[in-house]
Amino acid sequence: MISERTQAAIDRFKSKADGPLLEIEGIRKEFPGVVALDDVRLSLRRGTVHALMGENGAGKSTLMKIIAGIYTPERGTIRLRGDEVTLSGPLDALERGIAMIHQELALMPYMTVAENIWIRREPLNRLGLVDHAAMARRTRDLFARLNIAIDPLTEVRFLTVAQRQMVEIAKAVSYDSDVLIMDEPTSALTETEVAHLFAIIRDLKSRGIGIVYITHKMNELFEIADEFSVFRDGRYVGTHASNEVTRDDIIRMMVGRDITDMFPKEPADISDTILSVDGLSLDGVFHDISFDLRKGEILGLAGLVGSGRSNVAEALFGVTPATSGRIRIDGQAVRIASPADAMKHGMAFLTEDRKETGCFLPLSILENMQLAMLQDQNVRLGFVEQRAVNRQCAEMRETLRVKTPSMDERIENLSGGNQQKVLIARWLLTRPRILILDEPTRGIDVGAKAEIHRLISRLAGQGVAVIMISSELPEVLGMSDRIMVMHEGHMTGILDRAEADQVKIMELAAR
Amino acid sequence: MDNVQIEPAARKARRLPADLGILMVLVGVALVFEIMGWIFQGQSFLMNPQRLTIMILQVSVVGIIAIGVTQVIITGGIDLSSGSVVAMTAMVAMSFAQAAGYDRAVYPSLTGLPVLVPLAIGLGLGLLAGIVNGQLIARTGIPPFIATLGMMVTARGFAKWYTKGQPISFPTDGFAAIGNGALPVFIFLGVAVIFHILLKYTRYGKFTYAIGANAQAARVSGINVQRHLVKVYALAGLLSGLAGVVTAARAETAQAGMGMMYELDAIAAAVIGGTSLSGGRGKIFGTVIGTLILGLMMSGFTFLRVDAYYQEIVKGVIIVAAVVADTYRQKGRGKAGI
Ligand SMILES: Nc1ncnc2c1ncn2[C@@H]1O[C@H](COP(=O)(O)OP(=O)(O)OP(=O)(O)O)[C@@H](O)[C@H]1O
Ligand SMILES: [Mg+2]
């Protein structure tokens, strides 16, 4: 016979096991000048993927940082496995089984992959020193389980953004947490890697882990999420099962109005060749790249991560100059040894990695936006023509709808998507003739994405030549006049808009 | 904008302007000495214009250096050579500033030169030291700490070698006038105003902050980072040269031991004033206040007859406290401490 009290305890335990893994309610979080979250709730069940949707700056990352113990909310409760908890910090959250993959990658560049993963948990040998062999072995086991092919002993700085993302994912998984938070994990991944990630997620799900998944990509929602919650302006809008709504429903919940997702390119006058690349190579990275780019044309650059797409862009802009080959602009052979050289020829380059080569984190939004335009036209006798610059920046902020209380706010305090908008603004403000964009809509919400597509298209209409790298095939297909496909550092083909489709591109990209 | 909820009250309460914060520290330090003055000495600390003038005079030289060092620190670098460059330039400038007919002059045939000559030589030598620092850092990529440490030792050595350790004295009246009365204070404040404008309103300033905030992003945004760094270190060297001339003129003599540890006082002034050693943040205004705080402390301790040994101890503690306070200010902005 079990006593009544024991029975009650068992019941309570049972209900806990069946009840939500994580339940939060009435959360409020303020930052100086902004209420980031107000009366927000979320409930995560075991073995499910719960997607968070919302515009840039809706408060998704902030909410996740609260769950991961990084921010303390002003109000509200967090219940983990039925018990109310107060998280004292990220370590506390980790110990309670909550791990997070951040929107901005945060690995230590000069440490190896293994060291990054096991930091603070390094296996020790008998002398109490770090046992590097054991650490490498553990990493290999982990990678084998997750099917990741990265050498545990390479330093992180040699990895591509996508590889770093995979390392972050592996690291989060290695904590064996119950709750796993992923903040836009696919923004730097191409479809192959996304498929890989989804396989990992399905495996984690089957082990009863609850995953909160932030994304701006609708198709991912339908593919991987069981249910989703929508946030708007820091408020909770609603939660639904993902198989009972359409994408238009979700967009309406997110923005409060209807929106077309992709903005197909407007027809532009494609005229003279402005950039002509002949046999461009960078030893060991890419080889013999040749193409012409004409005014008003958008050239898409497709390929898997690691195919050398970004490297070609970096070489064109002088970030890592090519070792051989010729670049001609307006028919004249030019030498581009640095970004400054490239800018003299009217080039602009939005890089792929916002944190490493984009944002000046301690500086204000204004400083971040204006930096590249401080060339001769906006500077007189060394003095910045601040009034004219401010006006142009303010216009850009309107056009791109950067969500911030003030231009003097530090860019660090902006949401990821809004940072991206500031960086796009930085380059558009230079009034380039040749615009190179590496993942331009990375982390940008549906509404703003359409806006940016329209902007790019309008620039092309004005005669700007555009090279656009994107991991999202629909984006490449929708925007490009021609698409150049790369595979392992070689150019495998150039497709015209009319003949291009997903299948053809994938064939050329995978060979 | 339309979507953001702004709560002006909360905003004002939370975000004290950094400038005001550091100003309040200055006022606080002054008040503490004022109160202690009445308690222990039975007299006012502040109501003594002469004491305050001397106080500012004493720190003007460090202040001039600190302004140059501030912009170096904003780029994420450091300049350890300024104190030694002060000694070197003081010695060399003085050797061309000796009064006419002084027969034990370093260059007996070159006495009684117009003041412009030693001034130009002092500034030029400082500039040169700065350019060497900058080129070393930009071209070889060695850390600024090492490059300027080398210059620190070399310049000090040069100052000693120059006269085999002998002091140089008897400047012309014109040269001595540079250090006369309150002129050094005006030089300090003038330099402060110029560099405030330079950092705030010119492209040079914008690039300086950008490099300190993220050198890679700065390069990709079209900044010639190396060339810019040379300029920054060159200007810092120029100011050290100016400080050397002022020091020599004020003392009417030059010795190889001059400017000892000034580089550390200058760095301390910048850091107390809110310049971040990790780069990208800092203001000349803060550095000026930081310099005054240092001066106030020195003069206050002397006024209270605190033993010189204690002074150093307390100074060290206060410098560390300033940095700790700054770190907390950073965290207070909502950034997580991981
Ligand atoms: N540390 C901070 N200081 C001040 N404001 C902040 C801070 N962090 C976030 N905010 C503000 O809070 C709001 C919500 O930001 P959050 O990063 O949560 O958005 P998000 O939904 O993740 O957007 P995105 O899709 O662009 O990543 C934004 O307006 C942002 O500017
Ligand atoms: Mg976010």
How would you characterize the overall build of this protein?
The complex is a heterodimer of chains A (511) and B (338). Chain A contains 18 helices and 22 strands. Chain A folds into 3 domains: 11-255, Rossmann fold (3-Layer(aba) Sandwich); 268-346 and 432-511, Rossmann fold; 356-423, no CATH class. In chain A, 35% of the residues lie in helices and 25% in strands. Chain A has 511 residues and is an alpha/beta fold. Chain B contains 14 helices and 2 strands. In chain B, helix 12 runs parallel beside helix 14. By secondary structure, chain B is mainly alpha-helical. At the A-B interface, helix 11 and strand 18 of A face helix 1, helix 9 and helix 10 of B. The structure holds adenosine-5'-triphosphate and magnesium ion.
Question: TL;DR?
Answer:
Chain B: Keywords: Cell inner membrane, Cell membrane, Membrane, Transmembrane, Transmembrane helix, Transport. The complex is a heterodimer of chains A (511) and B (338). Chain A is an alpha/beta fold and 511 residues long.
Q: Which structural traits does this protein have?
A:
heterodimer; A: 511 residues; alpha/beta; Rossmann fold; 3 domains; six-stranded mixed β-sheet; 18 helices; 35% helix; 25% strand; B: 338 residues; ABC transporter involved in vitamin B12 uptake, BtuC; 71% helix; 1% strand; globular; disordered C terminus; binds adenosine-5'-triphosphate; binds magnesium ion
Indicate the percent of residues in helices of chain B: over 70%
Average pLDDT across residues of chain B?
A: 88
Number of strands of chain A: 22
β content of chain B, as a range? under 5%
- Termini separation of chain B comes to 30 Å
